[in-house]
Amino acid sequence: MMAARQLRVLGLSGSLRTRSYNAALLRGARELCPVGTTVEVFDELGTLPLYDEDLDDDPLPSAVAHLRSRIEAADGVLLVTPEHNASVPAALKNALDWASRPTGAAALTGKPVAIAGASPGALGTVRAQIALRQVLSAIDAKVLARPEVLVFRCHERISPDGTITDIATENLLRELLMGLSRQIRAQHDSGMLTA
Ligand SMILES: Cc1cc2nc3c(=O)[nH]c(=O)nc-3n(C[C@H](O)[C@H](O)[C@H](O)COP(=O)(O)O)c2cc1C
After folding, report:
1. 162 lines ligand 1 (CB under 6 A)
2. What DSSP assignment string belongs to 94-135?
3. pLDDT band at 191 (very low <50, low <70, confident <90, very high)
4. Pairing mode, if any, of strands 7-13 and 76-81?
5. Distance from the CA of 89 to the center of ligand 1, in angstroms?
6. In CATH, what class is 7-189?
7. Angle, CA 136 vertex, CA 77 and CA 163 arms, to 5°
8. How far apart are CA 155 and CA 120, in angstroms?
9. Would you state the pLDDT for residue 193?
10. I want to staple 83 with a disulfide (CB 3.0 to 4.6 A). Which of 111, 125, 167, 168 is the partner?
């Protein structure tokens, strides 16, 4: 029997902040992958121009071309989002808008996507994640329904140096990454993905 191919997941954090809890969660996810899956971090959301249809033409801004090619090369995507004013932070929404075009042939369309988020508040990004699911539905990405990874009171679960200190959070991330890997392999087996 042939060994299963190594799966590559591209991870994006919606925070540009150096000491971001969400970026810490994403870094932690790299260590929590099932065997056969790796998470690579894309940390260049801050270099993308604001979406402008005039710029969405050849030659593309290099940051946009880079984002699209990294998503295309990945088997799946992990989005880790803060909540800004009860919704998706602008930096992440901007990246998703770039990754949503050209319609019908966009890097994110049909791609398996898992989502998670951390907030110091009591709701743990639930409103941002609902908004994120709506955006991803418009892009026709294949979003995992569960587990819902809502890291509320994240300052009690992630230390100031960016280490996840809470076993329940680690287990949820593990379960999320396992689910994402399963979905990728199921889509590969059904012929829905060629990557
Ligand atoms: C503009 C802005 C709006 C925010 N709105 C919310 C919010 O709606 N809900 C929430 O839980 N936290 C909100 N916060 C607090 C963030 O959850 C907090 O800053 C968090 O640490 C950001 O994630 P990060 O650590 O990954 O950067 C907001 C912060 C900013 C700067």
Report:
1. no
2. HHHHHHT-STTS-TTTT-EEEEEEE-SSSSTTHHHHHHHHHH
3. confident
4. parallel
5. 9
6. alpha beta
7. 45
8. 6
9. 60
10. 125
Q: Where are the beta strands (DSSP E) in the chain?
A: 7-13, 37-42, 76-81, 112-118, 142-143, 149-151
Which of 18, 20, 119, 155 best tests ligand 1's pocket when mutated (most atoms within 8 Å of CB)?
A: 119
Mutate to test the pocket of ligand 1, among 22, 84, 87, 127 (most ligand atoms within 8 A of CB): 84
Handedness of CA 187, 188, 191, 195 (dihedral sign): positive
| Three-class SS state of 64 | helix
**Stated pTM of the model:** 0.96
Tokens linked to 36: 């056969």
Q: CA gyration radius for the chain?
A: 16
18-54 pLDDT, tens digit per residue, is 999 999 999 999 999 999 999 999 999 999 999 999 9
**Ligand 1 pocket member 83 (CB < 6 A):** yes
Report CA(176)–ligand 1 centroid distance (Å). Answer: 23
21-29 vs 167-189: helix crossing angle, rounded to 10: 60
| Atom of ligand 1 minimally distant from the CA of 125 | 11
d(CA 61, ligand 1 centre) in Å: 29
Tokens 């709506």 locate to 134
Q: Is 87 in the pocket of ligand 1 (CB under 6 A)?
A: no
Residues counted in the chain = 195
